Amino acid sequence: MALKGIVKSAIQALVAGNGASPVLCRGLHASPGSKKIVGVFYKANEYASKNPNFVGCVEGALGIRDWLESQGHHYIVTDDKEGPDCELEKHIKDLHVLITTPFHPAYVTAERIKKAKNLQLLLTAGIGSDHIDLKAAAEAGLTVAEVTGSNTVSVAEDELMRILILTRNFLPGHHQVISGDWNVAAISYRAYDLQGKTVGTVGAGRIGRLLLQRLKPFDCNLLYHDRIKMDPELETQIGAKFEEDLDAMLPKCDIIVINTPLTEKTKGLFDKDRISKLKKGVLIVNNARGAIMDTQAVADACASGQIGGYSGDVWHPQPAPKDHPWRYMPNQAMTPHISGTTIDAQLRYAAGVKDMLERYFKGEEFPPQNYIVKDGELASQYR
Ligand SMILES: NC(=O)c1ccc[n+]([C@@H]2O[C@H](COP(=O)([O-])OP(=O)(O)OC[C@H]3O[C@@H](n4cnc5c(N)ncnc54)[C@H](O)[C@@H]3O)[C@@H](O)[C@H]2O)c1
Fold first, then answer.
1. Domain containing residue 276: CATH number
2. Which atom of ligand 1 is nearest to the CA of 340?
3. Shared-domain flag, residues 103 and 217
4. In terms of Cα–Cα distance, which of 92, 38, 137 is closest to 375?
5. Which of 101, 210, 211, 226 to mutate to test the pocket of ligand 1 (most atoms within 8 A of CB)?
6. How many CA atoms lie within 13 A of 364 on its CB side?
7. What is the pLDDT of residues 219-271, one digit of tens each?
8. Which of the four, 134, 167, 233, 285, has the lowest number of CB atoms within 10 Å?
9. DSSP state for residue 64 in the 8-state scheme
10. Binding pocket residue ranges, ligand 1, CB within 6 Å
11. CA dist., res. 229 & res. 196, Å (int)
């Protein structure tokens, strides 16, 4: 971080001294010497050696172990993230940098932040830092940054696949084949073309826009709702119509795709009441975050047919417990959290993490779009 930023933070902390607790910025400037860096990733076990580019797992360790250790840093990698005796807890007290990933989220609570006296930097290998208590991180003066843009194509492609899987009623047909059955009617009575359907995305940032661009050749009626309207040129190029009022857009949609971050405003956005106002039989794709939906309301609506199909890769919490209702609801095409962790995406977010660590060691700024918490402030869409 530039000196200017540190001074600004310090001034903010002093100005806040009116009885409210000041923001005590720790300053993102790696002091010389060895740093303790902890990474929490999913474990690959027997799959680890199947692909040399499989860097997103514990065994692959983002491919930065040799580089970090050659500079004298201490790099610990684990998948053990839950409970008071887990591996992560052992290192919380003295780590300087914590690298986490949304695919196997280490929940960085206010309590953990309080214990982490040396912590300066929280890096998200991927996109979406809602597993971190961002307000607590801001109050503690920590920097939170993610590798913005690293897996947007991966997620948009996956969403397109899920839209087609639901529209065509694909999965029950596949299950028939595996179980030795053959029943065309059981599939075709509710299989449709995508052409001519109304598709609305809630959130049209990096992923939402890529999805809209990919949907254009399918000749759908494309709508989007976002905090921010696109500039008219881009809107025309993408061919989607802006809907300022979310609740006016949703009942028009045959297919709804969620593409906003999980924030205080989007948490539980799709509750029982909102779902009841959707078109009967609506298809929903959610690769954004599980907690944007009311879990039980989605399960009930899938059971009643109000939701005709639900697909996504995000759950709350993760890994999803064995008794999570979405595992057992009808008309679903759920998977574990996989869309943003293709091998291509892993290589991009590993490179992004390395770049930010390099800048941190040199005391340089990160690319501005990567910051989620900086100088005691949350990025605008999280406020
Ligand atoms: N499943 C996965 O593997 C995976 C991978 C990457 C990202 N994601 C999720 O997708 C989200 C979006 O990623 P992105 O790269 O497109 O982010 P982005 O920041 O480029 O886009 C988010 C968009 O949502 C809009 N938005 C935010 N809050 C809103 C609100 N309350 N109402 C309306 N619009 C709102 C923003 O204005 C922005 O245009 C991430 O935050 C993450 O949660 C999931």
1. 3.40.50.720
2. 3
3. no
4. 137
5. 226
6. 9
7. 999 999 999 999 999 999 999 999 999 999 999 999 999 999 999 999 999 99
8. 233
9. -
10. 126-128, 151-152, 155, 203-208, 226-228, 259-263, 265-266, 287-289, 313-314, 337, 339-340, 381
11. 24
Same domain, 82 and 137: yes
Kindly state the greatest CA–CA separation across the chain: 73
* pLDDT, tens digit (0-9, with 9 covering 90-100), for 156-202: 999 999 999 999 999 999 999 999 999 999 999 999 999 999 999 99
Number of domains in the chain: 2
In a domain, 2, yes or no: no
210/377 Cα distance (integer angstroms):
28
- Return mean pLDDT, the chain: 93
Give catalytic residues, as residue numbers: 151, 289, 318, 337
Ligand 1 pocket test, candidate residues 242, 342, 381, 382, most atoms within 8 A of CB: 381
Which residue has the CA at smallest separation from atom 11 of ligand 1? 261
Give yes or no for residue 309 having a pLDDT over 80: yes
Quote the CA–CA distance of 277 and 297 in Å, as a whole number: 13
User: In this structure, are 306 and 176 located in the same domain?
Assistant: yes
Pocket test for ligand 1, best of 259, 265, 311 (most atoms within 8 A of CB): 259
299 within a domain of the structure (yes/no)? yes
CB 86 within 8 A of CB 106: no
Please give the distance, rounded to the nearest whole angstrom, from the Cα atom of residue 261 to the centre of ligand 1: 4
3 domain-assigned:
no
Distance CA 19, CA 116 (A): 24
**Which residue carries 């599939």 as its tokens?**
187
- Summarize the confidence of residues 90-108 as an average pLDDT: 98
Location of structure tokens 């057992």? 328
**How far is residue 329 from each of residues 164, 335, 366, measured CA to CA in Å?**
19, 13, 43
Residue closest via CA to ligand 1's atom 10 equals 288
SS3 state of residue 373:
strand
* Tokens 């009617």, located at residue: 185
In a domain, 383, yes or no: no
Sheet holding 74-78, edge to edge: 74-78, 36-40, 97-100, 121-124, 143-146, 371-374, 377-378
For the annotated binding site, the residues are 127, 151-152, 206-207, 226, 261-265, 287, 313, 337-340
